[in-house]
Specification:
- The protein is an alpha+beta fold.
- Helix content is about 25%, strand content about 45%.
- It has five helices and nine strands.
- The protein has an eight-stranded antiparallel beta barrel with strand order 1-5-4-3-2-6-7-8, surrounded by five helices.
- Strand 4 and strand 5 form a beta hairpin.
- The longest helix has 14 residues.
Length: about 200
């Protein structure tokens, strides 16, 4: 179970101000490409599950399955299972989604087959995806991920912080943002849900 604080920033100016304030705590920056898959009958999305291949800095590749998200007051709880995937295989699956059915060593794809009944060659479809620039910071004992997410219909900005004490982490973050005059709101949708809607969240909410 992954538990994260997710706060949305209204615009690029807020994102830049926060990045500048956190610059002394910067660890690394990732360029992520996220591509999503489903069954031909939407077996995953209809059950609030997401199958994703993520490329990081063009070389590292990870296959993941997320399921049963619950978002409340800026905190998301979601089941997550991740596995490394050879980048060349990942690229081939984007070009030909049926190749996912040929990866026999994957526990994730075994679960997709058994639980969601997707597994035949013609079952898999590629939904497309989006790119994300993620700055990672170590601040006050927290690992902060500041995201600039580029969809083909616009750009959104968000702070994520995985924590075993999410309420404490959220309080620290809120105090920091308020003290520095940075507007924010609680994220009400996952990045995938925004991608599906093809519409950026209302910045006033």
């Amino acid at each position: 179970m992954e538990v994260e604080v997710k706060l949305r920033l209204p615009d690029s100016a807020s994102h830049q101000k926060l990045s500048d304030l956190l610059s002394p705590y910067h660890i690394k920056t990732f360029i992520q490409e996220n591509i999503f898959f489903d069954g031909a009958k939407a077996q995953l999305t209809s059950n609030l599950a997401v199958l994703r291949i993520r490329f990081c800095n063009l070389d590292t590749c990870v296959l993941s399955l997320k399921a049963k998200p619950v978002i409340s007051d800026g905190i998301i709880r979601i089941e997550e299972h991740e596995e490394p995937l050879d980048a060349a295989i990942g690229r081939s699956c984007i070009a030909d989604p049926w190749r996912l059915s040929r990866i026999e060593s994957s526990e994730i794809l075994r679960r997709v087959r058994d639980e969601y009944e997707i597994g035949e060659e013609r079952d898999f479809v590629c939904l497309g995806g989006f790119r994300n620039v993620r700055g990672v910071y170590e601040w006050n004992g927290l690992k902060l991920e500041v995201d600039e997410t580029n969809y083909d219909f616009g750009t959104s900005y968000e702070i994520e912080c995985e924590s075993s004490e999410p309420e404490r982490a959220k309080k620290l973050l809120e105090e920091f943002l308020n003290q520095n005059g940075i507007n924010y709101s609680y994220s009400q949708l996952s990045k995938f849900a925004v991608f599906q809607s093809r519409k950026l969240p209302d910045p006033g909410k």
